[in-house]
Amino acid sequence: MALDAMTRTRTETDSLGSLEIPADAYWGIHTARALENFPVSKRPISVYKDLVRALAMVKQASARANREIGALSAEKAELIDRASQLVIDGEYHDQFIVGVVQGGAGTSTNMNANEVITNIALELAGRPKGDYAFLSPIDDTNRSQSTNDVYPTAVKVGLSLDLLTLLDELDLLRKSFLAKAVEFHDILKVGRTQLQDAVPMTLGQEFHGFATTLGYDHQRLTENAYLLYEINMGATAIGTGITAHPTYGAAVLRHLREITGLDLAMADDLVEATSDTGSFMSFSSSLKRNAIKLSKICNDLRLLSSGPQAGFGEINLPPRQAGSSIMPGKVNPVIPEVVNQVAFAVAGADLTVTMAVEAGQLQLNAFEPIIAHSIFQSITWMRRGMHTLRVNCIDGITANRERLGAMVGASVGVVTALTPFIGYAESAALAKTALLTGRNVADLVVEAGLMSRDEVLKQLSPARLSGLEAITAAIPIVQAAENLVVAREDTDDI
């Protein structure tokens, strides 16, 4: 041990020379060089805890496989296994300090994991940190492996784990919209196309549509998760499996499936799998789809709540903060706005992933670190965005019933419901007259002798205007769903 500026250090050596490493650090010389080389993002890989856990899972599975095939002694494999489990359980994550954006195709990340897990294992064995003659980060913890199979496998496992939390939050958000669909099931409003008045619907139908959209996205993300389940462990440097025992691949796959609980599968062509990153591009695209559709919903929420006096003013978003430093009483739709911005960032990250996938050359894509960072950030921001949208906005939305009722009562769009009975031409003429005179459509129809008062009122009932009670073979929009939405047979009371 040496003393440097009154700080205890240890000396570690690699092929480039020697460096002094803080004595209490679990990382080593390869990590230290990465800290010097990549002060770019100023964000350590530990910000993505599922990536760190996934790295430890890969090292644990490899230790078990190497022990099984005789490539590691039982003692060494056991130490690496135990150390990896501590990281999987959430310990020592502060030691994973290399930047998320780095050159070298992820080598610095792999070596950070090798060094930390090795030094934890050395402590478990009663040995000092850096005693690599007893247990080596490269010869033992990285046995039968290369960054080029460890890193993409760990990224895929980490993203799969992270996605589970996103899907949970997405489902909670969907259910919040469904709850509002129930609450607003009997509130008529004017539907709009191209921002112009169209035909009546219920506010509940509008919110049910939002919920359905999110449900579809949940399905697409779940389906695309399987894109991440193909791994290339045993490929080592370029897919030929050099330095790995022929039986290692099957063994490590079996152990990694058991450790992660994921339905992982070995790629058919390891050379192709080591160079190709198309699965990341496809998965990123599905995240972008969800983000953009969620952003569209937030646009609608901002429009519907605009005003409160000179806008649509149909719904009220919960007031979260004062909206202006100059205009007293102003309250802005800040929660939908932040979710919009998350969507913009996800779209940008997807473009980054696309460019990085394209930039791969020959037997390896060197740009997987920016791919990993981009997708992990997208998942993280989307999960947080969905959470704040749900708890700070959707759950507290209220409807302006009187304003909505007044707009429906004054709308000429209701004449559309009469076209099956009086024809399009007559309906168009009546609509024009109603707009010019401000008179009620029902009165004009009756005065023209086209329908009786009772017939008009029947066809302009809320249930029929919103499609809940079909009269022209229309399909009801709101149907029973998870016992939350009003069933068709209950609509007579609406």
From TrEMBL:
An example molecular function term from Gene Ontology annotations: aspartate ammonia-lyase activity
Magnesium among keywords: no
Question: GO CC annotations?
Answer: cytosol
The source's superkingdom equals Bacteria
Question: Do you know which CDD domains this protein is assigned to?
Answer: Aspartase
**By its UniProt entry, which Pfam families does this protein fall under?**
FumaraseC_C (PF10415), Lyase_1 (PF00206)
BP GO terms, sorted: aspartate metabolic process; tricarboxylic acid cycle
Q: Which residues form the Fumarate lyase N-terminal domain?
A: 18-348
Residue ranges constituting the Fumarase C C-terminal domain according to the UniProt record: 415-465
InterPro entries with a match to the protein in the record: Aspartate_Ammonia-Lyase, Fumarase/histidase_N, Fumarase_C_C, Fumarate_lyase_CS, Fumarate_lyase_fam, Fumarate_lyase_N, L-Aspartase-like
The record's listing under PANTHER family reads: ASPARTATE AMMONIA-LYASE
| UniProt-recorded name of the protein | Aspartate ammonia-lyase
This protein's species is: Microbacterium pygmaeum
